[in-house]
Design goal:
By secondary structure, this protein is α/β, with parallel strands linked by helices. Helices cover about 50% and strands about 10% of the residues. The chain binds FE(4)-NI(1)-S(5) CLUSTER with Oxygen. The site of FE(4)-NI(1)-S(5) CLUSTER with Oxygen has 14 residues, from α13, α20 and α24.
Length: about 675
């Protein structure tokens, strides 16, 4: 009876063990600091809030009001016919496939809507409607124009002349924006893929028509009572993922490069230690560089630096979290403050005078943490606001971008004097070299004279480089922060596999010092170390933000084109990985890697385990269809070894596996060979 119940004491919330939560000393120190100050972070919430086992398996359907229908797979598994059904009769395979492609839709929408915003700013710049943005990289403009079918030359009196770049830019802007909603045809950039890949997509009926349509069609097909065949559902997921990788994301990358400059290698630093006690710290967090570019431009002006000094600071220190960090790093050398899981910790330093956020991967709890400090938390995007009343909203508009940026920077500077809690900035930071892309890899590994990927291919063929690993993606608080990332990457480079990285994996590698040429000697196998030393590159190449995974697709295409390693991306000794993924964007990226022919391994979990038939389809049947397939491996070393085994399988198929068996030659034999 109710009145007999003993009054229960409220439970003391459990706290995360800092060492178990992260392998990074700066992160451990700040989790400890949060505990001392009584501030809860995601690390603590993960200890008390257990994930739902059925959602984890991918077999909870809540697409109508008769459910949610929860169909867990028991430990005993299914022997014979699977009796599990939802109210409408949906099988676990249908449910898992629906959920999976809805994740692809979410991820593709996030990347592509980012791309659309960039395209809109691009169009304003091309039409000269804004003073803040202008075309920076005309070489890339011309190249992209060709892929979009925009004429780059004109005939005048029988002579072929270069067309006016302003005219080209306007047309590029119009055609690019049309990619989201054109009524007919297919995406222009699909033809950038190797020809056999394009033909394969055509054969399987997955050439995306326009970006928005493929996402909308997923929402339609997954409504109750529409598509009920997991094979047909994932086919649409494939089409939408390709629309992301070879469409929305690729457009975002290319248009950003044209507007803000194509990245080339530069030096910087990474980890919370980049914040400065005696300077105004502005931490920029989110994804779209449209805003952060303006803040970088404004914060660097003499006027703003003087203004900071007038308030008692030595200047303004910018740093970044998440993919905005990668964007402003690769183009301006702005240091990386931290990964996705360090966002709350940056405020807990007590030295963050303003955190400016736009879209994606932003914890709502930032507002609660900011309340404990003087930090101004500023949202800037109309589609991403927060409900808490301590959050400022300064909406950013490309038509008065510089004024908006100035307002934000001045607000941060004015706030410097309001610091109240004792400041504690961890000392930890690492030097880095970042800013690699399709062009700079070609330059470094192909040389100015050759200007191709030939030298890279040559080193893959002769076995100095065993293969290529694309290691990308998030942090996930369900696994020890950065441990999976670093173990996978270190195991790969130890085995002579060069790593291309983006997103939070890139930041994790940066914090560990893997983005320096010097790290090659310490961590790499002899072949990769030799190449890195000769060319002066790190063994882990930072290729940018998550939309910049499109750079990895194009780099892989260049490797195919350079010759000697097959005719399609699926022939390459290459593999993909996201050791600590958590976002829907990662699922979309994983699926367009797979659809592009790449064996792709995810860590932590994959929400398909409750539907073994669908899982088998992704893990095994997909290889027959696309040459690439999914895999899940939680143990980071086994994860890397699976990638290595796949790379070796591809080397064998190419007949270059023997090149790796290099024979040690003693002096006598060498002399004999030379005299022969
Ligand atoms: O787009 S890697 S946690 S920051 S989702 Fe988010 Fe994942 Fe980081 Fe960038 Ni990508």
């Amino acid at each position: 009876m109710v009145e007999n119940k003993q009054a229960t004491e409220p439970k003391t919330p459990k706290l995360a063990d800092p060492v178990e939560a992260s392998i990074d000393p700066a992160t451990q120190q700040m989790i400890q600091r949060a505990h001392e100050l009584g501030i809860e972070t995601a690390f603590d919430r993960a200890v008390t809030l257990k994930p739902c086992n059925i959602g984890n398996q991918g077999t909870c359907c809540k697409n109508c009001g008769m459910g949610p229908c929860r169909l867990p797979l028991t430990k005993a598994g299914v022997d014979g016919e699977d009796p599990r059904k939802g109210i409408c009769g949906a099988t676990p395979n249908t449910i898992a496939a629906r959920n999976f492609i809805r994740m692809i839709a979410g991820g593709a929408a996030a990347h592509s809507d980012h791309g659309r915003s960039v395209a809109e700013v691009f169009q304003s710049a091309a039409r000269k409607e804004t003073d803040a943005y202008r075309i920076k990289d005309t070489r890339k403009l011309i190249e992209v124009a060709k892929w979009l079918g925009v004429a780059t030359t004109v005939e005048v009196d029988g002579q072929t002349l270069d067309r006016d770049t302003d005219e080209i830019a306007v047309e590029v802007g119009e055609i690019a924006l049309n990619e989201w909603g054109k009524a007919e045809g297919e995406l222009h950039f699909l033809k950038r893929a190797p020809q056999p890949r394009y033909e394969l997509w055509k054969k399987h009926g997955v050439l995306p028509r326009n970006i928005d349509r493929e996402i909308v069609e997923i929402m339609h097909r997954t409504h109750i009572g529409v598509d009920q065949d997991y094979r047909n559902l994932i086919k649409q997921g494939t089409r939408a993922a390709i629309a992301d990788g070879w469409g929305g994301s690729m457009l975002a990358t290319e248009l950003q490069d044209i507007l803000f400059g194509t990245p080339y290698p530069l030096a910087s630093e990474a980890n919370l230690g980049v914040m400065k006690q005696d300077m105004v710290n502005i931490v920029i967090h989110g994804h779209e560089p449209v805003l952060s570019e303006m803040i970088v431009a404004v914060a660097g002006t003499r006027e703003m630096q003087d203004y900071a000094r007038s308030k008692g600071a030595k200047g303004i220190q910018l740093s970044g979290i998440c993919c905005t960090a990668n964007e402003i790093l690769q183009r301006h050398g702005v240091p990386l403050c931290g990964t996705f899981l360090q966002q709350e910790l940056a405020i807990i330093t007590g030295a963050c005078d303003a955190m400016v956020v736009d879209i994606q991967c932003i914890f709502q709890n930032l507002a609660n943490v900011a309340k404990c400090f003087h930090t101004k938390l500023i949202t800037t995007h109309p589609i991403a606001r927060m409900e808490q009343d301590n959050v400022l909203h300064i909406e950013f508009d490309e038509h008065h971008a510089l004024e908006d940026a100035k307002k934000i920077v001045m607000l941060a500077v004015d706030n410097f004097q309001n610091r109240r809690a004792e400041v504690m900035i961890p000392k930890h930071k690492s030097p880095i070299v970042a800013g690699f892309g399709v062009e700079s890899v070609e330059y470094h590994l192909g040389g100015v004279f050759r200007g191709s990927y030939f030298t890279l291919n040559d080193n893959i063929i002769n076995g100095r480089i065993r293969g290529i690993g694309g290691v990308v993606g998030c942090n996930n608080v369900r696994t020890r922060h950065n441990e999976g990332h670093l173990q996978v990457v270190k195991e790969l480079i130890k085995n002579d596999i060069i790593v291309l990285t983006t997103g939070c994996n890139a930041i994790a590698c940066a914090m560990e010092g893997l983005l320096t040429p010097e790290s090659a000697k310490v961590f790499c196998g002899p072949g990769l170390a030799e190449v890195c030393e000769t060319v002066g590159i790190p063994p882990v190449l930072h290729m940018g933000s998550c939309v910049d995974n499109s750079r990895i697709l194009l780099a892989a295409t260049e490797v195919v084109k350079a010759g000697g390693l097959g005719k399609d991306i699926s022939d390459l000794p290459a593999a993909g990985s996201a050791p600590e993924w958590m976002s829907e964007k990662a699922i979309s990226i994983g699926h367009y890697f797979v659809a592009s022919g790449v064996y792709t391994v995810f860590g932590v979990t994959l929400p398909v385990s409750g539907a073994p038939v669908f899982q088998k389809y992704l893990f095994e049947e997909f290889e027959k269809l696309y040459g690439g397939m999914w895999d899940l491996e939680v143990d980071p070393i086994k994860h890397a070894r699976k990638m290595i085994a796949h790379i070796d399988k591809k080397r064998q198929a190419l007949g270059i596996d023997r090149a790796r068996e290099r024979i040690m030659v003693d002096m006598a034999t060498r002399r004999a060979l030379e005299n022969a």
